[in-house]
Amino acid sequence: MSGSITFTMIKPDAVSAEHTGKIINDILEGGFNLKAMKYLRLTKEKAEAFYAVHKERPFFADLVAYMTSGPIVAAVLEKDNAVADFRTLIGATNPAEAAEGTIRKKYATSIEANAIHGSDSDENAAIEASFFFSSFERY
Ligand code: IDP
Ligand code: MG
Known about the structure:
Blueprint: E1 4-10, H1 12-16, H2 20-29, E2 33-40, H3 44-50, H4 60-67, E3 72-79, H5 82-90, H6 103-107, E4 116-118, H7 122-132
């Protein structure tokens, strides 16, 4: 049975702190299947496009600088109820408010450098997956 998908990025702070393996393990133990994965560094243009919804926010320039500061791991994950279940697994945007045991609680260092991205809707999951993986262009 195929589930729904979500899109994630392990962000530069977590990759540079060598948390990638532990985070992938948490994701798999959370019941998600890996459908696609790649290691890359975002260009400024790509980071600005990915976070375009936030371009009027005061933290936008800092967010783009942070997201381009080092390599990331981008992945497409599959599970029933993938978007909501993944947001539960990663925890609140601000790690100070994230529940015990969540990926952000364990690995994030600040509200900006918060270790991991998770899509916020099925529609955005499809858009974000296709942004990085041509095989998801018509998922
Ligand atoms: P989300 O990643 O939990 O969906 P969003 O509100 O979509 O949170 O924000 C996107 C990203 O922008 C966050 O994950 C975080 O890296 C950064 N961010 C959000 N709010 C702030 C803030 O108030 N200050 C600095 N960075 C922020
Ligand atoms: Mg968001």
